[in-house]
Amino acid sequence: MKIHELAQITGLTAPTIRFYEKEGLIDARHIRREANNYRFYDESVIAHLLMIRRLQSAGFTLAELRELLQARETQDQPRKLELLCRKMEEIDRKQTELRSIQIELNQLHARFLSAREKERQKAGNQS
Q1: What b/e string do you get for 35-45 counting C-beta neighbours within 10 Å, with b at 16 or more?
Q2: Does some domain include residue 123?
Q3: Could you tell me the CATH number of the domain that includes residue 43?
Q4: How many CB atoms lie under 10 A from the CB of residue 17?
C-alpha cells in the first residue's frame, strides 16, 4: 500500500511515517521501493505503526522505542523486560505525581468555590 493509504488506516500523517522510517523505527522488511521510487508498505507495518503509536502515548521516547524494537528483533528478552519494567515504574511515578496534583487542584477549587459563595452571601446581605 502507498503511504497515504497507510496514513489513513493508522491515523498517522505521511510525514510522521517518513520520519519513523528515517529514525529506524520502520525497517526494510516493511517497505519496498517501486520502480518509480515510491514507497510501498507491507500490510504488517500497520500493526507495527499502531504499536509504536501506543508505546509513544505510554511515554516511550524515540530512543527507547528504538532500543525496545532492537531488543525485540534480537530476541533479547531480558533487555526487553528491563525496558518495559523501567517504563512501568516511570508511569507509576507519574500517576502518583498526577494524583497529588489532582488533590491540590481539588483543594484550590473547593477554596475558590467557598470564597465565591461567601462573597455572594455577603453581597446578598448588603442588599
Answers
A1: eeeebebeeeb
A2: no
A3: 1.10.1660.10
A4: 23
